[in-house]
Fold each of these.
Amino acid sequence: MLNFKPVTQRDGAKLRRYYKDCSYGLCEYAVGTKLMWRPVLHPAWTEAGGCLIVKNEMDGRVLFDYPVPGLEGNEETALREIESYCIKRGVPLVISVVPDAKAPVLLARYPYVKVSNIRTWRDYIYNAEDLQNFTGRRYNGQRNHVRKFRKSYPAAAFRPLTEADFPAIEAFWTRFEEEFEKDDFKAERELALAKKLLRLLKKPWFCAGGIFDGEKLIALSLAEKCGQTLIIHIEKALYSYEGAYPTLVQAFASCFGRGVRLINREDDSADRGLRTSKLQYGPVKLAPKYYIEPLNELLCHVRDIPALTTRRLTLSKLTKADIPAYNALVLDAGRNRYWGYNDVGGLGGPVKNDSFFKIARDDFKNCAAVNFAVRLDGRFIGEAVLYNFNYRGDAELGCRIDAEYAGNGYGTEAFAVVADWALYQVHLTRVIAKCYKDNGPSFKMLSAVMKKSGEDETFFYFEKLV
């Protein structure tokens, strides 16, 4: 199980081990974004398979970034760990801000997905040389603004910012807020978060610079290099200095854009003014960020638990009338020592008469499992459970029969009919199962229905494919 811890300033160096060479080019794959937007994204991180895994929480939803591999990272291992985490925690699997190059990986991985690619999420990506030089007719406007700025403020000069500039930075924020015309919550929040992040400009993974008119700071920017992309986290200028913004953009790109091919000026936050401005600088692309939510087969194909029949049995959903017999089956400790799951411990509270029935009902409602009641001449004699849907076309099957009816082949019949239903009606790719190595009856049952696929010190493993 993955163990996440909240992202803090102290984690910056560890995250940078992954982000410094990251090729995704999106602003979310940067330390600055994780630190600046902590109050909104609530990011937490861990490592698995040589990859960085980040889990965010927004509006009550868990959202994962796509894994960022290190030098010998294994994305397959990281994705499996994320999937296992979601299955065990009972939370939907959502991988958000997926870069363009990784979307096909996930679309090929998951048979059923819900995909979003919203325009307002997209980052504005520019050729570094374009912003450094403003060459060509499309940059006539920017060049004119820079010329006018230089003529109006001949003493103005750009230079890197250091800790010694903190007094000038504080004075800049005071003047900026006096000129700040936006009064919506999002803009005010972004400004407050930007001010906090800029206090970290001494961190080695950030580069910061500003334009000074004499001793007065009139524009500033902070960025981070990730792979071949310079990601701009903060870009502010006093509105009273006409032409300060394009002058800052060019000067900052010229100073810190060496050694990178692209500059990411992040998204436009659905702000019309920002959108117009960022488009005027001639982005080479608006980088998509895919929101990919794999769906399990139950959600796509099963609206209600059907009735399945064999030569001797009927399998159907549990009813309230089954509660006494179902409780007796679940609480038979001797019978269930090979079940592999502590039903009582899994309750998380005291056992009530309908506790197990409610769990089965809720698991189906949440597309986590299908519990079939196994019936002989209408009498409840056991259950078959299809569970652990892994989003990749697999699910696990288990079956237990009441001790009074054991040894008659009922488990084999029930197991076989549910496995076929799962493969050919639910459209799974593979049904898997396991049994303890000293459980001879289960080994015999599984061998009659499935193919052995492996073993370890504890279990024999089986599978049945389409």
Amino acid sequence: MELGVCTGPPSAERAARLASAGCEYYEPSVAGAVMVAGRDAFTAGIGEWSRGALAPRAANVLLPGDLAVVGEERDGERLAGYLAEAFRRAHELGLERVVFGSGTARNVPEGFDRDEARRQFADALRLAAADAKDAVESAGGGGEMLVCLEHLRRAETNLVNSLAEAGELAEEIGVASLVLVVDGYHLEEESEDPAVVRRFAPLVRHVHVCGSGRVPPRPQDGERLRALFGELAAIGYEGRCSIECQWTDIDEEAPAALAVVRAAAEATGLA
């Protein structure tokens, strides 16, 4: 299992420090990094995304908060244009996993029909999955890019809060380019048993972890990480695992955090 960190494009110095600490890739935000610059500026700066041995292989936060995918304010035309461009850029960067969390964008407005909201969200997922597939095929078909539906705690959204709900929705949609990310933080916050990963084993293709309270993983988080990793080992998981947390000083905190996660992975046979 490869280990990475969620962060913006690092400087050459930071990339070297992260790589020396055992970081194998990084995971930037689509809305907060990949889609910030205009198309011409993005294309001109494509070479700045990979630094030495460190390159982006996944991305999180697909949508900005003001791009609603459910409710009366949903702008289908804007959503379609954004997703097409986002996945075109993602493929150019060599991203293989794009996490569809975006809690604010998918929050169901008060009074809006929840069944309709779920249908709208499913439509957005189908569109994203189709755009991911099209981006790969239009570039000649090389590589793989999957949309990873993320279960989010109720403090962040009111739609799809458990891995079980996410898995059921992905199975219902039933397209090959839509899979799941297992997020240890949201499992903990929603008191969901990590054993749920076994129910959706074929769909589990990415993992997020952090310490309790969304801090960098600490030694006291080892037991919880081992519980999750044990379930992943049981399904033969061989994907990536990103530390998604609130860094205070990533240069100082990342080496210890990576060591904690790697120790848990080694203890359960994932490393």
Amino acid sequence: MINERSKRPVWRLVAGAALASVLTTPPVWAGGTIEFGENSSVTIGAGLRTAYTSMEDSAGSGDDSSDFDLQSLRLYMNGQLNELVKFTFNTECKGCVFGQDAGDIGNGGEVDVLDAIVQFEFSPEFNVWAGRMLTPADRIELNGPYYGLNWNQFTVPLLPSDQLGQAGLLGRDDGVTVWGNLGKFQYAVGAFDGVEGGPNQDDNVLFSARFAYNFLNMESNPGYYTSSTYFGALGDIFTLGLSMQSQSDGTGTATEAGDFDAIILDALFEKVLGNNDVLTIEGELKSMDADLTAAAIADPTCFCLFDGDSSFFTAAYLINTPDTFGRWQPYLRYTNTEPDSGLDSDLTEIGLNYIIDSHNLRLNINWSSGDASLTGKRGPDIDGISIGFQIQL
């Protein structure tokens, strides 16, 4: 199995033919993985998210807008040289990503390196990853767009590595992370570049950490990554996570630099009921402190991060229908953002997932209303509806 986080199946025929043609020793197929010898293999996969979105009063003419967007297109590769040394290489089509999930990162049609990690996995208790990877952070950041409970999970202020590329891209940054599990306690601690140039003239490092405790069943994910629902497959779950990030001179401008700190508490509760329906509740409290001056805020070159508090709450109910093609999962999400200066904002999303193959194949329809955004700035108060499709191979 493989994903951008090492759990998706492979492109069996394409990958096999391409790799076999350049190898002198024929590979051995085993469960969707190409094996080159004992404990040596490569696995390839892909992910795609696309949606039709209609937004009220959002067209240039002032009328309603209607768009068909390829929101995400990713190619994944995992492999291992032996039992201890592994690697991950994933890409994102930069020009194919639009909307809330990606933060409108561009439309140049370029393919960006999403992850490039060398992984030294010594034991469940102690592992070291180095390269470009997700910074340890709150649950929604570590979910990525493919493992969220709702469709538009990135509507609260996000951390530096999700702010348009100056301090990373799509939650990723260059650095090193030490992680592991000690019983039901999980930890991930890392050091990263953070914002480069701009306010960080002294080349200070971004420190990032996440600590989580599984009070009931253990969550099962690759590395230190997360999901916001397991559709009841892991039984009853109750996990609390505490995340922190800090960088000296991590915000502002070259002449008006300020420090950045964030602390986040997130919780996930999932209960399998007597009829095998599944109740899922997720929430987060986030506090971000960006030491910004008025001069920095007025400067168009400012790497200005959100300064204030935000929160969200999501509840979902998965209806068990074992004799049908898929399962329905209605949900409700409310987001609230309160900057220390500026206007408060909020957003409500009411949606319905149709789960065919967990996170690998699902449909979604949702209605949203509000003015919250991933930057924390109050946007236009807009009602919208979207119909989305997600597949991972």
